UniProtKB/TrEMBL annotation:
<feature type="active site" description="Charge relay system">
    <location>
        <position position="571"/>
    </location>
</feature>
<keyword id="KW-0645">Protease</keyword>
<dbReference type="InterPro" id="IPR034197">
    <property type="entry name" value="Peptidases_S8_3"/>
</dbReference>
<keyword id="KW-0732">Signal</keyword>
<dbReference type="InterPro" id="IPR023828">
    <property type="entry name" value="Peptidase_S8_Ser-AS"/>
</dbReference>
<dbReference type="Pfam" id="PF05922">
    <property type="entry name" value="Inhibitor_I9"/>
</dbReference>
<dbReference type="InterPro" id="IPR037045">
    <property type="entry name" value="S8pro/Inhibitor_I9_sf"/>
</dbReference>
<keyword id="KW-0378">Hydrolase</keyword>
<dbReference type="InterPro" id="IPR010259">
    <property type="entry name" value="S8pro/Inhibitor_I9"/>
</dbReference>
<dbReference type="Pfam" id="PF17766">
    <property type="entry name" value="fn3_6"/>
</dbReference>
<comment type="similarity">
    <text>Belongs to the peptidase S8 family.</text>
</comment>
<dbReference type="Pfam" id="PF00082">
    <property type="entry name" value="Peptidase_S8"/>
</dbReference>
<dbReference type="InterPro" id="IPR045051">
    <property type="entry name" value="SBT"/>
</dbReference>
<feature type="signal peptide">
    <location>
        <begin position="1"/>
        <end position="27"/>
    </location>
</feature>
<dbReference type="InterPro" id="IPR015500">
    <property type="entry name" value="Peptidase_S8_subtilisin-rel"/>
</dbReference>
<protein>
    <submittedName>
        <fullName>Uncharacterized protein</fullName>
    </submittedName>
</protein>
<feature type="domain" description="Peptidase S8/S53">
    <location>
        <begin position="153"/>
        <end position="609"/>
    </location>
</feature>
Length: 789
């Protein structure tokens, strides 16, 4: 008996371990649920099976929903029937749904013959009026925006973003005509958003239920449960694209002028698919399907996948939605991403998407540093502190000299989190070195501010040209040259002092435009045989409508929350192109999306306001992987002379060349189509795109010939002559060198031959150049990029 008593604790311990292990194994065997998108190709509604207004009938939608629920029930166990629910259902431009599934269930669905692709619902990122005045002087003097007195147009722009703040003056409908009859959308209500918030400018507003971020069960949550914008990103984007003209706008006195969108007469429909945390891919897909069904002309999306984890074209919700939008005559404009200046960071790279990079305009925001010895240095940045109203100076210290105990000086001089001693920092202006791009300026500012400093002077070469808004905390950013002089001053005197003067705006700043450091660069990861980004537009310190939030540290003492403010990002560049495209469509109603895209690309400028080639943030000449074809010239694009029209067949051939099967392509397209007998990725270079990209040109195997066709939209009788601008080591010939158009000959094909004369050169780097077609009054420029084996 004693021995059993002695063994009892051991037996109990074994029992406990066994049960813990069993419990651990059982808990790990519980399948994890997460939202998936099930894409099933084209919808019957996208071709012939529609009602008279072009929308699916209610009966068709219900039948499709039932079919998808039945499909779900075939793979979800009967004892879990409560999970047979659709998060989103797609049935207009394309068909499919999103639902909470296990990995095993998703895999089973992917084997279904009706399914094109199944992928986890991705988490996408937000890419966040002087700009329009800056673009206008670049136009020929015979053109002017105001020549086209478009008090009201039928062009409808869908803004898929964080919602909208309807009270902004930018969305007033004064002078606009009746809502276009083609509009079939809605103005959804909520406790803080009424139907009366919509008008003849803001004609529609939707919001969506989205999958739970935790993805631990089948519950849903809403993005605020209202069309209203809680953060201002969508409002800023909408105002930039199509905001009404609003006089005497400024950001607390900075950048004063008229705020307006690129197409002030266009209509806006807002689709709230995002929150502060980002965007659900399945919700964006639903918003795109709704926008197409609602009758919009252009969809603007300042959102994208992570450049690190890019999916193929049939697992990317924006690429899927944009493909079907293009087939139904709706243009999709997207931001290129904010992961620059590294190469191969551009996103939204499908050829049917118009992809936009970001550049500066000719306005800078200057915050001057005044040292105790009387010397001044021009800094960059926006702040609204009362630090220097009396030009009083404050103690000045270098970060490494006020380091926290046991903190390496290298971390303190860069003002890393936790690196500063608040007792040493309090009451001082701190100098930090900020050339490590992994720590944002906002973080360094918070580190210094939380340590009770009076202000921050950031020595930062990396992010120059993009002014940081530090709210009510004094801030100035200087380059390395100025930074070294300020640090020398600190080391040369016992009691160094300084102040940061109030921010002022500097008009007519030169050079401009310059490609922004954050703007994502090409070539594209998914294919290098299409140049991406396509084009550049203003995206730095753009003033437009925002949500007036009264937030401490943002609103100056005694002031009201701002109704207009600056934002930077390719998010801001994208709506510039959207507005320009809407402007062109309002004049050329019959032009297709690809024709508008071609007009903007072939008329873009590559020169700054000094008359020199555009540069990037490092001071080097910008190339097509930085900026695409160049900066938009909207009015010039109204009369481009020639157009490269990319048709549905081009896009289908692209998919064949990329490697998708004919069966998949037929399931997603609305035309009867078979892939060419020979398909390879290098043939992508031959689709009729307004630019050319060739990868791995073999130096020893002769010539690569690229084909293009152009349509004359200028004078019926015109003769164009080609001019080639080729880099050294690359020979480029155009055949024929001259093309003639007449009343009966409107479309002509030509070839461009590429080969190298230096077969011993071992460099594989890209070379860039252009082919320009000239007649008496037009220049039609097509850029090219070539890499070598």
């Amino acid at each position: 008996m004693a021995s059993l008593l002695q063994l009892l604790p051991i037996l109990c311990l074994h029992w406990l371990i066994i049960n813990i292990n069993i419990s651990f194994i059982s808990s790990n065997q519980i399948p994890k649920l997460q939202p998936y998108v099930v894409y099933m190709g084209r919808s019957s509604s996208s071709s012939s099976s529609t009602t008279s207004n072009g929308n699916s009938s209610r009966e068709e939608v219900e039948i499709a929903k039932l079919a998808h629920l039945q499909l779900l029930s075939s793979i979800i166990p009967s004892e879990e029937s409560e999970r047979i629910n659709l998060i989103h259902h797609y049935n207009h431009a394309f068909k499919g749904f999103s639902a909470m599934l296990t990995d095993k269930e998703a895999s089973a669905l992917s084997e279904n013959d009706e399914v094109v692709s199944v992928f986890p619902d991705p988490h996408l990122q937000l890419h966040t009026t002087r700009s329009w005045d800056f673009l206008e002087p670049q136009q020929p003097t015979t053109y002017n925006f105001h020549k086209y007195n478009l008090s009201s147009t039928d062009v409808i722009i869908a803004i898929i973003d964080t919602g909208i703040w309807p009270e902004s003056q930018s969305f007033k409908d004064i002078g606009l005509g009746e809502i276009p009859s083609k509009w079939k959308g809605v103005c959804m209500e909520s406790p803080d958003f009424k139907k009366s918030n919509c008008n003849r400018k803001l004609i529609g507003a939707r919001y969506y239920h989205t999958p739970s971020a935790a993805a631990s069960n089948s519950t849903l949550k809403t993005s605020g449960g209202t069309p209203r914008d809680p953060i201002g990103h969508g409002t800023h984007v909408a105002g930039t694209a199509a905001g009404a003209r609003v006089r005497n706008v400024s950001y607390y006195g900075l950048g004063r002028g008229i705020a307006r969108g690129g197409s002030p007469s266009a209509r806006i429909a807002s689709y709230k698919a995002c929150s502060e945390d980002g965007c659900s891919g399945s919700t964006i897909l639903k918003a795109m399907d709704d926008a197409i069904k609602d009758g919009v002309d252009i969809i603007s999306i300042s959102i994208g996948m992570s450049s690190i984890f890019q999916e193929d074209f049939l697992s990317d919700p924006i690429a899927i939605g944009a493909f079907h939008a293009e087939q139904m005559g709706v243009m999709v404009v997207c931001s290129a991403g904010n992961d620059g200046p590294d190469s191969s960071t551009v996103v939204n790279t499908a050829p049917w998407i118009f992809t936009v990079a970001a550049s500066t305009i000719d306005r800078d925001f200057q915050s001057t540093v005044l040292l105790g010895n009387g010397k001044t240095f021009q800094g960059n940045g926006i702040h609204f502190s009362n630090l220097s109203r009396s030009k009083k100076t404050y103690p000045l210290a270098f970060g490494k000299d006020v380091a926290a105990r046991l903190t390496p000086p290298s971390e303190a001089k860069s003002c890393y989190p936790g690196s500063l001693d608040p007792e040493k920092v309090e009451g001082k202006i701190i100098v930090c070195i900020g050339n490590d791009p992994t720590v944002p300026r906002k973080i360094r500012k918070l580190v210094v501010e939380d340590a009770n400093a009076k202000g921050l002077i950031l020595v930062n070469e990396y992010e120059k040209g993009v002014p940081f808004d530090s709210g009510t905390f004094a801030f100035a950013q200087v380059d390395n040259r100025v930074g070294s002089q300020i640090i020398n001053y600190i080391n040369s005197t016992k009691n160094p002092t300084a102040t940061i003067l109030p921010t002022v705006d500097i008009p007519k700043h030169k050079p401009a435009p310059v490609i922004a450091y954050f703007s994502s660069r090409g070539p594209g990861q998914l294919t290098e045989n299409i140049i991406k980004p396509d084009i550049t537009a203003p995206g730095v310190a753009i003033i437009a409508a925002v949500v007036p939030i009264d937030k401490e540290g943002i609103v100056p003492i005694g002031q009201k929350p701002p109704k207009y403010a600056t934002r930077s990002g390719t998010s801001m560049a994208c709506p510039h192109v959207t507005g320009a495209a809407a402007f062109i469509r309002s004049v050329h109603h019959q032009w297709s999306s690809s024709m508008i895209k071609s007009a903007l690309m072939t008329t873009a400028t590559v020169y700054d306001n000094l008359g020199k080639p555009m540069r990037n943030n490092t001071g080097k000449y910008a190339n097509p992987h930085d900026m695409g074809v160049g900066e938009i010239s909207p009015v010039k694009a109204l009369d481009p002379g020639l157009l490269f029209e990319t048709r549905t067949k081009d896009y289908l051939n692209f998919l064949c060349y990329y490697g998708y099967s004919g069966k998949i392509i037929r399931s997603i397209s609305n035309v009867n189509f078979n892939c060419p007998n020979k398909s390879s990725e290098k043939l992508i270079s031959n689709i009729n795109y307004p630019s050319i990209s060739i990868t791995n040109l073999d130096r020893r195997r002769g010539v690569r010939i690229i084909r293009r066709r152009v349509t004359n939209v200028g004078s019926p009788n015109a003769t164009y002559i080609a001019k080639v601008d080729a880099p050294s080591g690359l020979l480029v010939k155009v055949l024929p060198h001259k093309i003639d158009f007449t009343d009966t000959i409107k479309t002509v094909s030509f070839k461009v031959a590429f080969y190298t004369k230096n077969k011993e050169d071992t460099s594989t780097a890209y070379k860039f150049g252009s082919v320009t077609w000239f007649d008496a009054s037009h220049s039609v420029r097509m850029v090219f990029a070539v890499s070598f084996l």
